[in-house]
Specification:
With 132 residues, this protein is mainly alpha-helical. It has 2 domains: 44 residues, Orthogonal Bundle (Arc Repressor Mutant, subunit A), CATH 1.10.10; 67 residues. The chain is 76% helix and 0% strand. The longest helix is centred in the middle third of the chain and has 37 residues. The radius of gyration is 22 Å and the shape is flat. The two termini are 34 Å apart.
Length: 132
């Protein structure tokens, strides 16, 4: 079986963990109606770990896009509060700041990941003048 193909139980495991990332292995096992030991066995598989990483990256891309779209609104809210057009509660300021800072960090991380992937691809291709 190719490494990329997940069994139905593996795919369900990924879905359950994606829906409830803070769930314990016991909670995941209960939702899947399998033993905790089987959950641990599945989590030890390389293809399952890769699928979990892919799901996490997808979630980060979605979060980044959402934060990016909210950044304009957050910036406007901060400007409005700074110019006394709106009430500047600590919760509103903290929320707007978190959106702006979190969005910037996620964009930076995704850009860094993209650049690393490009560098790894460059390193894996043979150099043109290299002896063969």
């Amino acid at each position: 079986m190719p490494d990329q193909v997940l069994t139905p139980i593996e795919a369900r495991l990924i879905a359950v963990i994606s829906e409830a990332p803070a769930a314990s292995q016991a909670d995941v096992a209960k939702r899947l109606r399998i033993s905790e030991r089987h959950v641990r066995r599945l989590l030890a598989l390389e293809r399952v770990r890769k699928a979990l990483d892919d799901a996490a990256r997808t979630g980060l891309r979605e979060a980044s896009a959402l934060l990016g779209r909210g950044a304009v609104r957050a910036a406007r809210a901060l400007i409005s509060m700074a110019s006394a057009d709106a009430a500047a509660t600590s919760a509103r300021v903290a929320a707007a700041r978190a959106v702006l800072e979190g969005g910037a960090r996620l964009v930076d991380l995704m850009d860094l990941e993209r650049r690393i992937v490009e560098l790894e691809k460059e390193r894996s291709t043979p150099w043109r003048g290299a002896p063969q």
